[in-house]
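Q: What changes when heme-as is included in the input?
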Amino acid sequence: MKSAVQPYSRTDVEPGLTKIILFEIVFPMILLILGITMGLLQVLFRAGIIRSQSFLGINYYQGLTLHGAINAIVFTTFFAVAFGHAIIRFYTGKPLLLGAACWSLILMTVGTVMAAIPMLTGSASVLYTFYPPLKAHPAFYIGLVLLVIGSWVAFFSWIPVFQQWKRENPNTKMPLAVLGVFATFIVWFIATIPVAIEIIALLIPWSLGWTPTVNVPLARMLFWFFGHPLVYFWLLPAYVMYYTMLPKLTGGKLYSDFAGRFTFMWLIAFSAPIGIHHQYTEPGISTTWKFVHAFFTMLVAIPSLVTAFTLAASMEHGARKSGGTGLFGWWKKLPWLDTDRWLFGYLFCGLFIFIFGGITGIINASYSLDNVVHNTAWMPAHFHQTVAGPVFLAFIGGSLLLLSTLGGKEIALKRLNVWIPYLWTIGIMVFSTGLFIGGIAGEPRRTNMGLSYTNPASPLYQPSWNVARVAGTIGGVIMFLTMLLYFVIFFGTLLRKKTSEGALEFPVTTVYHDEDVVALQSLRPWLVATVILLIVAYTMPFVELAKARYEGAPRYSPASPVALRK
Ligand code: HAS
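A: The predicted holo structure follows.
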């Protein structure tokens, strides 16, 4: 089905920036082939279809590290930077600082390659959380630091460009998409400071053998100080697409500009002071501070609830403008399989999946309920319905959009492309349902189950988890096959001949309610609130850790535990 409306607006771009953005889209997509294959491998290990330590030379924990690091850290960071370049260039109309963009790309690429080599050779099987005492080769940590510094360079290079735009447009509101990109990178900057401290002060000296042991509770708290805002660093670019592109794709307007600005500002303030909700079960942190983080976590869900109602209203507005009527009849007028407005499916399916990812997030946030599901298969179910749902679909949709528009190429296999998000949704929902059921039944989260719980020959064999495992496996295989189809479309598009001059093309949404709200006109008070909240949330937990006495931990690797202990 083709669209009657032309939803995209166009801006020409300097060839240098085009090359940088295209590299930042294509390079991680090549790595994603490996990341997705490692996902299939996880499913096969968990199902007991592979019943050994390793498969084709890949150890279970090595595969899990590659899966998490490539899909959740490398792919997302490259996309966020490429998307940031594109949005700042598109909405300010100003050329970017190409030298800085180039350095950012070089640092991120060198960092990724440095971190990838130890992961591929099995000397960094520490999972994406790299919790000590799991120890990686120093190159892994140094690579991560370079990746992060590269992304900072891009962020700081956008600020003077925006300031120049502001000087030339003193009475114009900051475009919502630009605010969203800045919110993304403010959250990222805040998040990456504690993890930089963890890596540089604790992990690198320890992995080089300069310090014999590491303070595990301190490292874990620093990690989650990073780890929770990290998830909003993933979510925010998707929210930029939802607020500024989705309504236009439905033929309507964004219901409320206020809702978008509020969401971005609130997420800056509340995404970081909540990391301890990942540590409810850990010693050394008092219940008082666990409760404070639980309370703040409930507050971080508010903007997503606002987003749910705002986007539903915006889609209804678009569908009714296209002739939709009745209480539910308007749904029929949404561009479900429109080959021109194909991005709609990617964004809508992400929203649908996020309903369940969001509800289960609120369950996790509840101090007592989390004790039932913590470290069980429930967790990967939750985060596949968040990061592999709205985030991943928006990012692979966004990657395809940037590739085809900047590359001046028609999308290959257009009719197949519109089905990708629906197939992915089926896969995610079946997979996660299996893992939710297994999690409630106590199925562990990170274990080579083929060696133990799924193996009838093992004394640990758990037949009661079979239904959950079968659903998880079927869903995982559907997801894998869907991504194979997506890769055919993406790389098929890449290899096509140019049919037009490349340019940035985005659907640009106009706004239904565009009232000015004083509290949302400036970022400054929100940044001050953010700092205050961080001081309130983290000062005492760090004091508590400093007062407690711990044995430092020596190095350990799940791949070769004995060798490292020696
Ligand atoms: Fe989470 C663990 C709490 C959101 C990712 N989370 C994780 C982990 C990851 C992750 C990766 O409190 C595991 C980390 C690890 O390795 O250990 N999470 C929350 C809460 C939210 C939340 C309260 N998480 C996310 C997002 C993620 C993400 C977003 C990635 C992008 N999460 C937790 C907690 C833990 C946790 C605990 C630790 C648990 C433990 O024990 O370890 C909230 O932000 C969620 C708010 C969202 C909503 C949903 C709004 C719905 C929308 C869709 C509307 C649909 C429409 C379409 C309009 C309230 C916007 C209509 C269509 C129709 C058909 C009707």
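Observations recorded in class: The radius of gyration is 23 Å.
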